[in-house]
Amino acid sequence: MEQLTIKTSTHDYPVVIDQGLRFKLKSFLNKDYPSIYIITDSNVAPLYLDDVYNALKANYHVSYSIVPAGEESKSSRVYFDLMTQLIEAGVDRDGLVIALGGGMIGDLAGFVAASYLRGIDYIQMPTTILAHDSSVGGKVAINHPLGKNLIGAFYPPVAVLYDVETLQTIPFQEIRSGYAEIAKHSMIHTPPFWEQIKPVTLDESLSDATLIRDLIHGINVKAAIVERDEKEANIRQFLNFGHTLGHAIESELGYGKMTHGEAVAIGMLFAMELSEQYFSVTLPIEAFHNWLKRNDYPLTLPRLSVNQLMTRMKRDKKTKNQTIKMVLLKTLGEPVIIDMEDRSLRQQLEAFLEKMVIR
Ligand SMILES: NC(=O)c1ccc[n+]([C@@H]2O[C@H](COP(=O)([O-])OP(=O)(O)OC[C@H]3O[C@@H](n4cnc5c(N)ncnc54)[C@H](O)[C@@H]3O)[C@@H](O)[C@H]2O)c1
Ligand SMILES: O=C(O)C(=O)C[C@@H](O)[C@H](O)[C@H](O)COP(=O)(O)O
Ligand SMILES: [Zn+2]
């Protein structure tokens, strides 16, 4: 078992990483909750809902909702339906929400918990690799058709219980998606650990030991950053490496058409190219590109409108005074936030997308 504690402005919470945690939930509940409400999705429910429900039902009043799997459920409609279900179930201010699933569920259920009755406790139970990132740090949100995560809060959970046994059932595309955020952590951290990720192949040969090593490394990077800058006043923006374009691609294509990690991977490639030009440095772009290719990441895009992408990037939460900010790398492990000038960003984006279309 691995455990760390995250300090926030309101409380500290544990991140526990172990096999089979879903069977031992009771021992991690530090309050006598009158009701527990599990929120999960239609892929995770048949696999793990019973285990979680059965681990609690003898001691607590437990209810649940199952939302359709997929990014489209991180929506105002599903959010509102969940609110209705919690009200009808009579969950009060002493209730607990359990977010059982990947980052979609963590963000959605976390935002439900943050806003229901002005905020009740919630536990993150991540079940994807990507959720090593989303379950830590307290960013919760739903999407708006105009942009990703535009409606949300900083609202830390009371615990993150990462039962890594659940990762055995995730499909390959989701292994890829999650490893993109691990690669992100490997490149923004000092010292960088990209050299550790570079040889990893995301197929049957990926061992549990490698996966757990990389997950723990990623979680430690994330934890260290969010502890120092919980509300993203400064260095937390580094965690947005690859996201300025990645989020624009996700929303422009339509939520769920490309996974979050796949879109962020493309965004990282673009940010690396911009970094090389901006700082006249050499980054391991070719090695990263080869890694993405070897692991079957999508490296082509349909022809997208550069105007639309620019408009979407302007709606990014880092934007101030209409100036798009990008996380660039001065060198591997040394991220910086740069105000981008529209004209040159547009030109570089056009050139980048042209390569993505024909590659
Ligand atoms: N809050 C944050 O800090 C943060 C960080 C990174 C990403 N995110 C958000 O996270 C979301 C992406 O998360 P995700 O990649 O986990 O997507 P997801 O939650 O949609 O899960 C991906 C797919 O895997 C399925 N699944 C989940 N766990 C499974 C399991 N154990 N076995 C089999 N199938 C399983 C899901 O049903 C879904 O189909 C995006 O909305 C992104 O914006 C948030
Ligand atoms: O925790 C953060 O901060 C991050 O930026 C982590 C990202 O991987 C994640 O996708 C996050 O949801 C993006 O945040 P946003 O503020 O750009 O919506
Ligand atoms: Zn992300």
UniProtKB/TrEMBL annotation:
Q: Does the keyword Metal-binding apply?
A: yes
State a single Gene Ontology molecular function: metal ion binding
Q: Which residues bind Zn(2+)?
A: E181, H243, H260
Q: Which cofactor does it need?
A: NAD(+); Co(2+); Zn(2+)
For this entry, list what GO says about its biological process. Answer: amino acid biosynthetic process; aromatic amino acid family biosynthetic process; chorismate biosynthetic process
Q: Residues in domain 3-dehydroquinate synthase C-terminal?
A: 178-319
Q: What is the cofactor note?
A: Binds 1 divalent metal cation per subunit. Can use either Co(2+) or Zn(2+).
Positions of the 3-dehydroquinate synthase N-terminal domain: 66-176
Record: residues binding NAD(+): T127, T128, K139, K148, T166, L167, Q168, T169
Q: What does the entry list under GO cellular component?
A: cytoplasm
Keyword Transit peptide assigned to the entry: answer is no
Please state the Enzyme Commission number of this protein. Answer: 4.2.3.4
Keywords in alphabetical order, please: Amino-acid biosynthesis, Aromatic amino acid biosynthesis, Cobalt, Cytoplasm, Lyase, Metal-binding, NAD, Nucleotide-binding, Zinc
Q: Which family does it belong to?
A: Belongs to the sugar phosphate cyclases superfamily. Dehydroquinate synthase family.
Q: What does this protein do?
A: Catalyzes the conversion of 3-deoxy-D-arabino-heptulosonate 7-phosphate (DAHP) to dehydroquinate (DHQ).
Matching PANTHER family, A to Z? 3-DEHYDROQUINATE SYNTHASE (PTHR43622), 3-DEHYDROQUINATE SYNTHASE, CHLOROPLASTIC (PTHR43622:SF7)
Q: What is this protein called?
A: 3-dehydroquinate synthase
The organism is: Halolactibacillus halophilus
**UniProt gene name:** aroB
